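User: Before I run my own analysis I want an independent prediction to cross-check against. Here's the chain; please return only the structure tokens and, at the end, one sentence I can use as a sanity check.
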Amino acid sequence: MLFRSGIAARWHQLSCDSKTKDLRMVRTKEQFRSVTEEEGVDFVALAKQRLGEFYATGPSSLSHDLQAGLNKLQETHAMLAEMKKSAKALTYAEGLFKLPITPHPDLVKLEEEVKDLDLTFGLYSDFKEFEMNNSNTLWAQLNTTLLEEGIAELEVKARRFPKGLKGTSCFQAVDHHIAAFKEGIPMIVSLKNDAMKERHWQGLRSEEH
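Assistant: Structure tokens:
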């Protein structure tokens, strides 16, 4: 009998402890729920701020220095990856606490803008690689036919760009670099011509001094 009463007492205590923990968990869940709601509001504000900074001081603001713009784009990719990671975690928490899922239009817009810049700076990277490869080639080994074909290929890539991107300052800066390089090719072809007389070389050298 004493054994049974002991079991009953322990069961009663376990029941009370369980109910107490349930009440504490309810309060804890409400606290986390409230924190998650605040984080949702803060994240929306942060995404808006990041988009504003992107337009003001991001890669597209550095069309006068495309290499700096390319470096900035890499930094933007890192920032965007962190933002997307935070957005995913926030969405998971909102689902866990049965909260409305917060939309992130500014983050979506930022991602779209970065994709557009990837295209433009991708063309710039292709041009720089082409330019570097040719600048590292010895004059005697320089193939003017490949030079003309290479710049023509870059021009084709530029022409295939979406109309909306062609109006951006970054694209126009890249297009200008390609056009300027193309303008110099006829001179290179002339200098590579076996018929080029020594006096012409002398004339060019005198112009440099």
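Sanity check: The radius of gyration is 32 Å.
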